[in-house]
Design a protein that fits this description.
single chain, 131 residues, alpha/beta, 2,3-Dihydroxybiphenyl 1,2-Dioxygenase, domain 1, globular, 8 strands, four-stranded mixed β-sheet, 39% strand
Amino acid sequence: MSNRIIHFEIQADDLGRAKKFYEDTFGWKIEQVMSEEKGDQMDYWMLDTGKGPGIGGGMYKRPVDDKIYTYDDTILVEDIDKAIELVKANGGIITREKSELKEVGWFASAKDTEGNRFALMQATDWKPESN
């Protein structure tokens, strides 16, 4: 057993708005896999974040009694400036401007349309064709 994180989850007040944000900002493929209308215990969406390093996740309606506004993940991007522009263009906000982490890469913090916090990272040595 590797003890690696294999899945993350995002809570959203408006699932349609959150789905659009992540599809339009990062190109994620998001598919509903559970539906209360079909008798499942909840509405649940799978998040396919793409190929290369990283993991996929899920998304569900933020519960009234246990609200979480962070999944505190870092999203690896090829071009942090472009990613920052896309976050803003799709209704998110940048909460910590781009800064350099010496010998690691460029980093910025953001919030999505639902108020969830996440980070962006353009790694110094990562090349998309090498993964």
